[in-house]
Specification:
Structural class: mainly alpha
Largest sheet: none
Order of helices and strands: HHHHHH
Number of domains: 2
Number of strands: 0
Radius of gyration: 18 Å
Number of helices: 6
């Protein structure tokens, strides 16, 4: 997943579980489209939702809402990091945030796992592709571009064959 992993987990919880604006299936479908589009997934997702309910003005408002405040926060944090980057507490905090973000992404994946039952690939094939991708990138350290090109193309072909 591309950037904003922790925010994606919060978005899933808010949109699906808390507010019930989307079903899990709708969230997964929109997220799938958001991942194909250039840019951060959560920004793409917010723009699609803004457009769905309020048209172009909603999409632009969602874009501004997703980018303006984080831009200010990142600029402040970058300035602070430049000043304190050699401090052990700063490097420890960054490692901790990385682990927390990975945990949030993993928890979100587990919550969305039941939606694979209705996926054209089915639960078994989807999990097999996820495991193969993870192994190829982490253990074999193959370039992500080649893994996506190979396994992604295979998954598309398999889904195409299984669609009615």
């Amino acid at each position: 997943m591309q950037g904003f992993g922790g925010v994606l987990a919060v978005a899933q919880r808010e949109l699906v579980e808390r507010k019930h604006w989307l079903t899990r299936e709708q969230f997964v479908e929109l997220l799938s489209v958001a991942q194909v589009l250039p840019g951060p997934n959560i920004v793409n997702l917010s723009m699609m939702l803004g457009d769905r309910w309020f048209g172009v003005r909603g999409a632009m408002s969602a874009l501004a809402g997703m980018l303006l405040m984080p831009l200010g926060v990142v600029l402040v944090l970058a300035t602070l990091y430049g000043r304190y980057e050699h401090h052990p507490a700063v490097s420890g905090a960054l490692r901790g945030m990385g682990v927390a973000a990975a945990g949030l992404v993993f928890a979100t994946a587990l919550k969305l796992l039941p939606t694979l039952r209705t996926n054209p690939l089915g639960l078994g094939s989807s999990l097999g592709l996820a495991i193969a991708t993870t192994l190829a990138v982490t253990l074999l350290q193959w370039p992500l571009l080649w893994v996506i090109a190979g396994l992604g193309s295979g998954a598309i072909a398999l889904a195409w064959r299984r669609l009615p």
